[in-house]
Amino acid sequence: MTRPEPGPETERPGRAVHIGSVTGSAFAVGDHNEVSTVNGLAAGPPAAEEQTAALLTAVRELRADLARLTSAVTQRTEVAVLDAELVAVEEEIEAGDAVATGRLARLRAALVSAAPVVELLASGGAVATAVAALLGG
User: Fold this and answer.
1) Are 62 and 124 in contact (CB under 8 A)?
2) Domain for residue 16, yes or no?
3) In this structure, is residue 58 part of a structural domain?
4) 83 in a domain, yes or no?
5) How many CB atoms lie within 10 A of CB 126?
6) What confidence tens digit (pLDDT) does each residue in 27-74 have?
7) What range does the domain containing 81 cover?
8) Coil/strand/helix, residue 74
9) Predicted local distance difference test score (pLDDT) of residue 73
10) Residue 29 falls inside a structural domain
11) H-assigned helices in 1-121
């Protein structure tokens, strides 16, 4: 395919393109352009099932990390309460139940209470993040 020689018929001096506001679209200006677009917002927020799966993984990791700590740490009341809440959340998820908002609130409170220990563990941050996602902030 040959292109025509530039001349009065093919040159377009002074042509301008003005674009106002564009949302959720793609466009191209000029000859021989290709446009493709992917709307990253189309998927929306993660499904509750994905958030629950993330919580379950984080709960298991935190329980494993807590088990590796010395007995002087794990026997502290706030750590024992946290472990009990982690067990309850894990059992609810494994039973196929949605974790109740009240249970998540108690888990969050237990995380705060045991913060001096939990803050040392990356898995503690993962649980806190997963709980916040399920509680909406």
Assistant:
1) yes
2) no
3) yes
4) yes
5) 17
6) 555 565 555 554 444 455 557 788 999 999 999 999 999 998 888 888
7) 48-135
8) helix
9) 86
10) no
11) 48-67, 71-74, 77-94, 101-113, 115-118
Amino acid at the residue 10: T
Q: How many residues does the chain have?
A: 137
Q: Which amino acid is at 73?
A: V
Q: What is the domain count for the chain? A: 1
Reported as a single tens digit per residue, the pLDDT across 69-89 is 888 888 899 999 999 999 999
Q: Is the pLDDT of residue 24 over 90?
A: no
Q: Provide the pLDDT for residue 130.
A: 92
- In eight-state DSSP terms, residue 99 is P
Residue of higher predicted confidence among 26 and 58: 58
Taking CA atoms, 40 is separated from 20, 126, 134, in Å, by 22, 24, 22
Angstrom distance (rounded) from CA 18 to CA 24: 18
DSSP label of 40: T
Q: Find all residues with CB under 8 Å of 106, minimum gap 6, and list them.
A: 85
The owner of tokens 């740490």 is: 73
Query: How many C-beta atoms surround the C-beta of residue 73 within 10 A?
Result: 14
- Written as six digits, the tokens of 58 are 């984080």
Cβ atoms of 113 and 82 closer than 8 Å = yes
Which candidate, 42, 82, 32, places its Cα nearest to that of 58?
82
